[in-house]
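Each record in this resource describes a single protein on a pair of labelled lines. The shape at a given residue is found from the number at the same position. The record below illustrates this layout:

***
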Amino acid sequence: MRTAVLATLLAVFTALLPATAGAANPTITTPPAGSHGFPFLAAAEDLGSFGYTESEFFISGTATAYAKSGLWTSSGRWDVRPTTQAEYRTRLLVRRPSDPARFNGTVVVEWLNVSAQLELSPDYWFMRDELLRQGYAWVGVSAQSVGVNGGLGDIAGLRGWDPARYGSLVHPGDAYAYDIFSQAGQALRTPNGPDPLGGLDIRTLLADGESQSAGFMTTYANAVQPVARVYDGLMIHSNSAVAAPISGRLVDVLTMPNPSRIRTDTAVPVFVVLTETDVPGAAVARQPDTDRVVHWELAGTAHGDQWAFDLGGPTVQKSAGSAAPEPGCAAGSAPYNDGPGHYSMNAALRALTTWAQGGPRPASGALLDADRRDPATGLATGGIRLPDVAVPTRTLSGERDTTDSGVFCGLYGARDPWNGDADPWDQHDDGDPSDPSFPPTAEPVLSRLYPTKADYVAKVQAAAQSSVTAGHLLPEDAATIVEAARNSGIGG
């Protein structure tokens, strides 16, 4: 009996301790200026106007690859064993408050996305407002080989984009990416060389990844974080049902568990956020929320959207120029989804931060039914419904018609402003009015829905307050939404 009590006390005590890193501590150096004079993915916006500074550092050391140990199942309770080692040198892109007094103690470490064969920072764009107004530090990690060495076509990696700046970088392959990401976090905790955070005292270190990076983050949460113990919490944004392989071996790619759920015995909190685009492909991996795993499904949102495109487009154009990727949507097709995805990510970030610091678990949310749409509005049913969806003025969808469009076009969803006409951007017309996804023959008329400005603003205000009370919207963003309603032409 006494042994069992002691074991329980030890487990509780261990859970209360901060993360104790099991990752190696890399060497930190500063890069040369190079031919461009600025880092790839340098912010196009004036960070100084927000009281922020941007800098770049190299980290180098010996990275370890992992292999599966034992049977991996859909439970996510995955064990790994170390295999080979290889030398590497990669980079960290750092944005932090210029005034240390503004730092809130939390660093968000984003696994930079390379789906477009060059590095992107989608979650920085989605969460930009919350990051900058609350005094977070943000660090982008060049974790994958494509970002450093280049990929398909004419799109160069960092080494090809600026050989004078990045020519010394070395990436031995994505089998080592997980340990490189761990070492990036360790470099921030105990810098061996120049301090990327300029002496800021870290209270909370969060790992983050969106889309393809979220697939790697799923495997990281299940298999590597329990070994490395570097991060205090993990954000997984827009993952699919199957996680990324632990190595580059074909057998690992083909034998990843389907579905790949998050292990429920994780020592640190894991927050999974899915947009409407993601739900059809990820729903099979749904799992009940626990005291360590929570997931949200966001109605009226898209995997990529107008907000992220407007913020990220100038940044990518500044670095990649004519090689900057576009979603490739056909001319005349529906405009991108401009729904509330960024508001949800702001709330998720703050909730995860509080949770990782020992505060309450984030609120749960209803499941989304992306296949069943409201016949009056064309909006998906269920899910977390922020004011854009609860008090709608347009049809917001996580999917779109991608005929004659590029491979990434479908990720940007669609919006259809209501003019009272038949829906010109219909995404669901299968010709069967008895089908619950069949759209209305004519769109709602805004003047009938909201006969006065006061009526419209009151409904938006009530929906915003309801979302704040539910824990799905931040008060600052609720105020922004209500003010936009007051300044709109709706109900006037």
